[in-house]
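Below: protein 1.
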Amino acid sequence: MGHSKAEKAKNRERILDEAAAQIRKSGLESVSVGKLMAKVNLTHGGFYGHFASRSDLIAQALERALGSSQAAAKASHDPEQPKNFRMWVKSYLSRAHRDSPNTGCAIAALISDVGRADQQVRSVMRPHIENYLASLAQSLGDDDRAMVAVSAMIGALALSRAVADPKRSDAILRAVRDGVIAMREEE
């Protein structure tokens, strides 16, 4: 007995949602096709009706995770208020963001995994990084300064999550936050 196109599309969305949540929580290599399909109550054999390969699934799930991260960032911004660079940097380099890797910036949470991934997966990350760079270049007025700021912010967030000492973790966030904010005030 066949499945309708609508049912197949719904199942594909469930697979992608679960895979995206899993990679945000545990990284790209945490995804096992068999376990993923069991989690969404589908057979392992049905996987290839939805994706060409595991790499295809990972690339699409990464896109989903990055897209949801961007949507959450946009939703947290009040469109009636002008984008305040200082407040945005403080929010990005905050304890709350550091302590929320599953829902915070997916670039920071997954950048090391993506760097080790195949070309298909790495190509998914590029436009998201470019958008981030363009956004900061607009605020900082310079592409080179934006590259420094983005690299510092993503690096600081990742390092602060890796450091077990809370005081040292906070110090990393504070130092980079102050340095990035100073970059704009140097104009």
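Below: protein 2.
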Amino acid sequence: MNDQLTIKRTDSNDADFNTLIRQLDYELWTIMNEVQATYDQFNKVPDLPTVIVAYYNNEPVACGCFKKHNDNTVEIKRMFVVPESRGKDVATTILAELEKWAKELNYTTAVLETGKRMTPANQLYKKNGYSITENYGQYIGLEESVCMKKELAR
């Protein structure tokens, strides 16, 4: 069996991306319960041109995207790996590709938000050079949020 991971740059209208996002949303509701209602409004990514979908054997297994936060900064959004592909560094590959793409577009910083209950996500981001920062924007005052930041090396 060929376990070659392939990466596709696409947009938020991509059918595979939307299938993965539905799985992500279901998982978030399962973990966060009613708290997720507050966050759902922040997770929308319509008409976003900076989406990545990863495939094993032509099957979509992971996704992520970013959107402009300000002139120098992108916000990493909608990171997800299907359960059967976790533990294989797929999320790190997605994150690295998103950072590479952001640098190609001349962004110098990445920010993101995850939840206190999302232990694997917190570990992933810290392992990849993100550090906790003050909650920004819509996450100010939300105690379940953990906001992180990373300077993107040139």
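Residues 5-111 form a domain with the Aminopeptidase fold (CATH 3.40.630.30).
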